[in-house]
Amino acid sequence: MGKKKKGQNQKQKRKQAQSGSNLQTLTLVTLLVVFLGLGVYAIVDTFTGSENADQAHEQPNAVDEELFAYDQQPVQGDREANVNIVEFGDFKCPVCKEFEREIFPKLKQDYLDNGQAGFYFINNQFIAEDSVTAGIAGEAVYKQDPEAFWKFYDAIYEQQGPEHEHWATKEFLVDLAKKTVPEIDHQKLEQAIEDRKYEDEVRKDKSIATQAGVTSVPVLFINGKPVPTNKTFDYNYIKQMIEEELKKQ
To answer: pTM score, two decimals?
Structure first.
């Protein structure tokens, strides 16, 4: 009897050990499946830019256009046009650079050169402190020569350095201006950057962005109506918004 009982106990222990091992294996497999599932979701969500993710982004609201203070902002196209397009941008933003390359030329060709719209740039310089320095330089160029601003705008995006490096220095900006806008007074520009003369203007623009609900760059508004942030590079969508505003004339 003692031997039989002992054998039964050993079998029971083996079963318990096997059961524990199976449970541990099942737990590990379950965790692996969960992590793999999360990983796949993250990859798909990142590379497909799913609509759900886009909808989760905070969207600006429509605003009263008086907020934008058009008369104080650089404009390309017709300042008296019935369609006003606003870009909130940061000169250090690589996505803003892509917008300037891909979308802005189409807007210029279709609506700015023929006077159907005015395109305004408003600072939302927040990536780094030298973003503000670049914004000050832009304001200084604009104050000297409004037309020169847009050449400087193109050039600074063209020569944009890495987002996380401190490249928008006084020396870089003045040298860039000498090469691209020789018609302005570069000594005055250098002094304006050194004294941070137009920092208040850059900060005021940032305040406008905040009041408009802008939390990223680039962000567009057309006659006070925001272009959804997931449509910033959808030119057909932007064009449709503009055409709808033109029909109201």
So the answer is: 0.78
Using an 8 Å Cβ cutoff, are 156 and 193 in contact? no
Q: Are 232 and 241 in contact (CB under 8 A)?
A: no
pLDDT tens per residue across span 67-80? 999 999 999 999 99
User: Is 155 in contact with 184 (CB distance < 8 Å)?
Assistant: no
Residue owning tokens 């832009």:
138
| Domain ranges (residues) in the chain | 2-48, 65-247
Structure confidence by residue, pLDDT tens digits, 7-29: 454 555 454 545 455 545 444 44
3-state helix, strand, coil in the chain (%, to 5): 65, 10, 30
The candidate with the shortest Cα–Cα distance to 151, out of 120, 175, 179, 171, is 179
d(CA 208, CA 214) in angstroms, rounded, equals 9
Report how far residue 148's alpha carbon sits from residue 109's, in angstroms, rounded to the nearest whole number.
19
Beta-bridge mates of residue 220: 87
* Amino acid in the structure at residue 243: E
Q: CATH for 65-247, among 3.40.50.620, 3.40.30.10, 3.40.50.10800, 3.40.50.2000? A: 3.40.30.10
39-85 pLDDT, tens digit each: 433 333 333 333 333 333 568 989 999 999 999 999 999 999 999 99
